[in-house]
Amino acid sequence: MTTALTLAWEAPTIRPHGMGEINKFGHRARRHNHVEDIDGVAIEELVATYGSPVFVSSERGLRRSIRHLRGLFERYWPTAVHGWSYKTNYTSAVCMILHQEGSLAEVVSQFEYDKARRLGVPGDCIVFNGPNKPRAAIHRALSEGARLHVDHFDELAMVSDVARELGRVVPIGLRLNFETGFTEAWSRFGFNLDSGQAEEAIRRIIADPYLRLAGLHTHIGTFILDPRAYGAAITTLCRVLGEAEALQGIPLDYLDIGGGFPSRNALQGLYLPPDQAVPDLEDYVRAIADALARGTADRGQPPITLIYESGRAVVDDHQQLITSVVGTKALPDGRRSAVLDAGVNALFTAFWYDHEVRMTRPATGVAADTVLYGPLCMNIDVVRRSIQLPPLVAGDRLVIANTGAYNNTQWMQFIEYRPAIALVLEAGGHCLIRAAETLDVMCQQDRLPPHLATIVPAPLRRVG
Ligand SMILES: Cc1ncc(COP(=O)(O)O)c(C=O)c1O
Q: Ligand 1: does its nearest atom lie under 6 Å from the Cβ of 404?
């Protein structure tokens, strides 16, 4: 039996070929299959409830994601522990999902430390990184048993001072940076190994009666596309571990490999699409575990604890942004463009990703090179510089994928209110996890001295 397909007739169109529309792998553009729901909740219901734009996280996706990564580590290096990188997404509900799944908190500022404590994370379940730790934050962290990773010599002196004040030996970690041969070293963070700085820091700690070296940390970068970089980093950490243990005469408690695994986003400038460019997470975990096994084989200790601080690989792919088309415009060079109600103010990652954009209705008309602008009255506000899309009309909804990492922390309070964040619940339904900003929120930190409290005595001159 054959089924008759009824398709609407469309007039044939001829249009010029645009640069970048095709490469040797074929069309960069995906098929324009549209999306009508997120985890079973209709897009229109989400917009009706929370407005547009709105970020929508998936509880099921987040839980699956961290369980998958944790499962890989359990298989290859069972003493591994995940530290949730707060700066990737510190929306409270997202942090709590990850803590419920067993992740420690990895924080890089006094604010993030305080936030983790307020959410109920015990001090000894916090890893405290970052180059700026005020004395009060160091005091609190050390008193509460956090794993503090020292970044530079001035901080080391302060940590030593606070430990003396506490009157007990404090375990601390050191952040190291070094060449892996695969990535450019992030040499501004931590102690440089190749220059001898790290060795000097280790000697100072060992000589300090109030300090004990407990861990070594590195974070080799972000969106690292070659798992071998992690093997190289672990090999170096293990070498330093051996040297430090020999010097100190006491074994260290852990190594911390930081974050940096990629998500499924398309980095701008990357030739291949993410499904070809991004290796499986298992390749990273295996590279780490193999190097750990080799590097600690002669240590004569139980398998060392490994902390990993994956941020974007855990959350990026489990949040989407629903945005609406405000208007469309033909550009003078013939391209199409659309103005959206969300731009780089909300979607900061548009600066470095070519986010996938999907429509919420079946496409009609011929796809063509389109520029997607945000709502800001600023030239920088471009969500996609070039994307193949069918003709858009005002009121269309678009769903921008993989927006869970670094947006709800780096977004700007600039020109527009920042939108709400909703969570589609694993048990069904959805709820608000962060309210959209209002005028009160925007103004609450302002203070008006009395003589500026009213516009009188300089009445406004009306125009005309
Ligand atoms: C110390 C540290 N840990 C973890 C992360 C999280 O990195 P990612 O999101 O690339 O996994 C970062 C991000 O820069 C970091 O600086």
A: no
